[in-house]
Write a structure and sequence with these properties.
This protein has one domain. The protein has seven helices and six strands, in the order E-E-H-H-H-H-H-E-E-E-E-H-H. The protein has a six-stranded mixed β-sheet, with helices on both faces. It is globular, with a radius of gyration of 16 Å. The chain starts with a strand and ends with a helix.
Length: 186
């Protein structure tokens, strides 16, 4: 497991690059969210979830179009944010990344976080660990059509990736941004 900066040297946002993958997780999720074939397979496989009343009867074709459009806006939003001063990034990320669990009120070492897409009713999710006060490490992301992550294998996989990254960092003795920066320099 390696970590890469997504947009630049002063960016507060990092991404996991798993040893068996060609690209880091940030790149992977945005590639998937803009890949028509991937989206068609995904929404066809999860058509029952897409047909839930919450999603207002959206068709697979509409879901593909909306996902691609939102993914592009989402990535551009993050890229634009990465070009702002670090203090602005930090304050924006604090409000942007929500606790993974709705009833999570205590803050602890390597908090699990989620970020929603930009639409009002969005199924796009990015999952990250918050390291210290200033840094977020993206461990993955997915299209979440159900209420509970444990309901579907693809969302359960994201929970496992969050936990695996957290355990890796603990095993390496990394407790803050400085530890991550040292790891990046190796």
């Amino acid at each position: 497991m390696n970590f890469v900066r997504i947009f630049g040297d002063e960016d507060c946002l990092l991404s996991v690059h798993y040893d068996h993958e060609d690209h880091d997780e940030f790149s992977n999720i945005f590639d998937q969210w803009t890949d028509i074939e991937y989206l068609e397979d995904f929404f066809t496989t999860h058509k029952i979830d897409l047909n839930r009343p919450y999603w207002d009867g959206i068709t697979i074709e509409q879901a593909i179009i909306e996902t691609r459009h939102e993914a592009i806006k989402f990535r551009n939003f993050l890229k634009k944010l990465s070009k702002t001063p670090k203090k602005v990034q930090i304050s924006k990320f604090i409000s942007f990344f929500k606790p993974l669990e709705k009833n999570q009120f205590n803050f602890s070492y390597l908090d699990k976080k989620k970020a929603y897409g930009l639409r009002n009713k969005t199924w796009l999710r990015i999952y990250a660990l918050k390291v210290g006060d200033d840094m977020y490490i993206i461990t993955g992301g997915t299209i979440k059509l159900t209420d509970n992550m444990a309901e579907r294998p693809h969302t359960l996989k994201e929970l496992k990736k969050l936990e695996a990254c957290k355990q890796f960092l603990k095993n390496e003795g990394i407790i803050d941004e400085e530890g991550i920066v040292e790891l990046l320099e190796l």
